[in-house]
Amino acid sequence: MNDSYSGKNGKVKVMYVRSEDNNDGRKDSGRHQDNDRRKNNRRPFGKGNEQGDRRRNSERPARSGDRSPWKTISRPEGEPPKLEHSGISGKSHIDPEQLRRQRLEETRIYGENACQAMFQNRPDAIVRAWFVQSVTPRFRDALKWMAANRKAYHVVDDEELAKASGTEHHGGVCFLIKKRNGLNAETYLQQAPAKDCVLALENVGNPHNLGAIMRSCAHFGVQGVILQDTAMLESGAAVRTAEGGAEHIKGIDADGFTTTLNQFRDEGYTIVTTSSHKGSTTLAQATLPEKMVLVLGQESDGLSDSTWEDGDIRLSIGGTGRVESLNVSVATGIVLAEWWRQNKV
Question: Region labeled Disordered — which residues (predicted)?
């Protein structure tokens, strides 16, 4: 069906009424005519007109006879779109609970000595690795092993490695690893050696102090470290500062600090507390037992009064008195050196 009329300029305009039942070819002609009319009405310049066209098209209700496979759906402003399929829309979907568990189970360590020690002692715990080109010759064995065991690794520039590790002090390498779980006191005591010094840290949380402490522990043969949160022993900064010593340390969970100390006392350990503020036996005068738990306190205030008084031996490190106290990691090294001299040499 068609009709015609004359416009103001005298030209004859032809209109077609489109029908789904009409297969005589006129609907294709009508579609071309519509396209021509839209092109003639479009402004030649500027994005504003195109945006206006899109806005008008989005506001135009869908017609029952539209051949387009797309449809316009109006929804209140601010309401998220409702997907009619279960496919990917822009971003892949990751289960947030699974991601949270994964982050709790993994950590990033960095530093050349720390990562070399990690590879030598626990290669299976490595999940992914990043290297700068200059360190790859020294990690040749690690690279071969990761390639053979389908472990992902990346050779990147310094800026990308800083992003991957979260620090500029990465030492040219970063490993994403699976965390070790802390031991409970019972498990540690079952495998403890006859001569054994265990370290207990009350509210010590600075990662650089923890790293220096682990380094001293590894040097003087201390295996166990009691801590309220053993995960702190595997922070990137602590492991890097330990310079490989972290791989020789076992974290012991202390659900209750005093309760855990009593468990070791019941197994024959002497509890040795330290302070620079309270009267006590100086280290030079003390006889340190073969089995002991050395207890040190937080960086600012030292041990709490209750923990200090619970010690079987109470120690202080003699000095000039020109400074208030020693750094907790330095004090640890001094006392452990004396324990080693008396019991291991």
Answer: 1-98
By residue range, what is the domain housing residue 107?
A: 103-178
| Residue with token string 């109006």 | 74
Give me the residues paired with residue 225 across strands.
Answer: 199, 251
Give the model confidence (pLDDT) of 195-236 as tens digits: 999 999 999 989 999 999 999 999 999 999 999 899 999 999
Question: Residues 318, 218: one domain?
Answer: yes
Q: Single out the residue of 203, 197, 234 nearest to residue 216, CA to CA.
A: 197
Asked if 189 and 338 sit in the same domain, the reply is yes
User: For residue 92, what are the contacts with CB-CB under 8 A and spacing of at least 6?
Assistant: none
The answer on 227 and 108 residing in a single domain is: no
Nearest to 221 by CA among 240, 194, 239: 194
Same domain, 147 and 194: no
Shared-domain flag, residues 163 and 192: no
Whether the predicted pLDDT of 43 surpasses 80: no
Decide if 61 is inside a domain: no
**Type of residue at 276:** S
What is the pTM assigned to this prediction?
A: 0.70
Q: Return d(Cα 173, Cα 335) in angstroms, integer.
A: 33
Q: Where are the alpha helices (DSSP H) in the chain?
A: 26-41, 47-59, 96-105, 112-121, 140-148, 158-165, 185-190, 207-219, 236-242, 257-266, 305-309, 328-343
210 and 115, same domain (yes or no)? no
Contacts of 240 (CB under 8 A, 6+ apart): 109, 110, 111, 114, 169, 171, 211
Cα 97–Cα 123–Cα 94 angle in degrees, nearest 5: 20
* Other Cβ atoms closer than 10 A to 212: 22
pLDDT in tens, 60-106: 554 545 555 555 555 566 665 554 444 444 444 556 666 666 667 89
CA distance 41 to 50: 11
